[in-house]
Amino acid sequence: MDITVSEDIDSEFLEVVRDILEDREFKKLNCFRQHLKTTRFMHSLNVSYISWCLARRFRCDARAAARAGLLHDFFLYDFRDKQPTRELQAFYHPKVAAYNSTNHFNISEKEANAILSHMFPLGPLPTSKEAWLITCADKICATMELFQLHIALAKPGRVKISAA
To answer: Which of 127, 109, 12 is closest to 64 using CA atoms?
Structure first.
């Protein structure tokens, strides 16, 4: 699967997340629906980009915000299927995403904590500015995607994903 990103997307952002975007396992997120017509891949990319923009604006750790935003939903199962635990999806998937991200990408503690808390108030209280930004960006993106409004990188033609 190849990913082509339009030239008008900030190259600095792409440099921060390129290794994740090019990862074979991460690309599998494109096979899962997230909010109606959005894939989990595109949702994660939207959250990442908005988190990165906000972090730069508020002089936070933009790298951590972009990477944790991209990995916040890094779980490779359909959330509508029965889970191996009795936990609700809202509580379960951040743990799986943090576990997968830590093992697959060797993320920082700040990034792992941001992933674990991104479902606040349904999960733990975010403990860093970057975690708060990801939590907010996730809510913004989910709302926009549910209403099928194009935001950030989801604008038609900005990102193309094809099988390779």
So the answer is: 109
pLDDT tens figures, 100-119? 999 999 899 999 999 999 99
pLDDT tens by residue, 84-100: 777 777 788 999 999 99
Evaluate whether 130 touches 68 at the Cβ level (below 8 Å): yes
What three-state secondary structure class fits 161? strand
Residues 6+ apart with CB under 8 A from 66: 13, 16, 17, 48, 49, 51, 52, 55
The domain limits of the chain are 2-162
Average pLDDT, the chain: 85
CATH 3.40.50.11540 fits 2-162, yes or no: no
Contact 144, 151 (CB under 8 A): yes
